[in-house]
Design goal:
Blueprint lengths: L4 E5 L6 H17 L4 E5 L5 H8 L4 E5 L16 H5 L4 E4 L2 H7 L3 H13 L3 E6 L3 H5 L3 H12 L12 E4 L13 H20 L1 H6 L1 E5 L7 H5 L6 E4 L6 H10 L2
Parallel strand pairs: 1-2, 1-8, 2-3, 3-4, 4-5, 5-6, 6-7, 7-8
Helix pairs in contact: 1-2, 1-11, 5-7, 7-8
Length: 251
């Protein structure tokens, strides 16, 4: 039985002081939700402040990215060792990283391996563009991203990995995929590659989230789909009431 996970990707929002305020506002509601795991991913400079408030709670903390080297002359990068001092999770391969910062399936692969080396749980993002979707290439693109991004990755249990299916055309646009379409992509394209790489048991245990304009109004529709194990939430995770409501909908 996969426990739902609702993750908030704060992107380039919130100072350390603002992060404290937001977490303090949402924490009581998140703590009260049973049988759902919750995760917040603030920007790097807010992570230590968030870690203080979340210590001893049921809410996990994640980074939004890491570099694959442990240390060295890599100006402005953050290593998995640094992130692991505070975080339990890390988002890897978000479409914005791919689109704006040149990340590829190959660099995703290196980051995933680095994360696992330091016991960080990677939340690996996959998803097609609108052009690819309209050309009927969704399955081809997602399966390629899965195979290349996870090539040579070794995990011993399903709880070491999370996948987020985020159709690029639905991120920040207000346009969400249809819940049954998202479930079909997960069931027909994502889990088969997980089975191919890690075996059927792990494939059925890995949590696969949906991301892309998830809001309190549509969250339950996605969570009612058998293959959708939670959500990677963007804009709505910056509003305490909305993020708590989405998490409650997963319960």
């Amino acid at each position: 039985m996969r426990v739902p996970l609702v993750a908030g990707n704060w992107k380039l929002n919130k100072t350390a002081a603002e992060a404290r305020e937001l977490i303090a506002e949402m924490l009581p509601g998140l703590q009260a939700v049973e049988n759902v795991d919750s995760l917040v991913c603030p920007p790097y400079l807010a992570i230590p402040a968030a870690a203080e408030l979340l210590d001893g709670t049921k809410v996990a903390l994640g980074a939004q990215n890491i570099y694959w080297e442990t240390e060295g002359a890599f100006t402005a990068e953050v290593s998995p060792k640094m992130a692991a001092e505070f975080c339990q999770f890390v988002i890897i391969g978000h479409s914005e990283r791919r689109a704006y910062f040149g990340e590829t399936d190959q660099t995703v692969n290196r980051r995933v391996k680095a994360a696992l080396e330091f016991d960080l749980i990677p939340v690996v993002c996959v998803g097609e563009t609108l052009e690819e979707n309209e050309a009927g290439k969704t399955s081809e693109v997602v399966m390629r991203q899965m195979r290349d991004g996870l090539a040579g990755v070794a995990i011993g249990s399903a709880d070491q990995l999370v996948i987020a299916y985020e159709p690029v055309w639905a991120i920040g646009t207000g346009k969400a995929a249809y819940p049954d379409d998202a479930s079909r992509v997960i069931g027909k394209s994502i889990r088969p590659v997980l089975a191919e790489l890690f075996g059927e048991e792990i494939s059925q245990g890995v949590r696969v989230l949906y991301g892309g304009s998830v809001k309190p109004e549509n969250a339950a529709d996605f969570f009612n789909e058998e293959e959708v194990d939670g959500a990677l939430v963007g804009g709505a995770s910056l509003k305490a009431a909305d993020f708590v409501a989405i998490t409650e909908a997963a319960g």
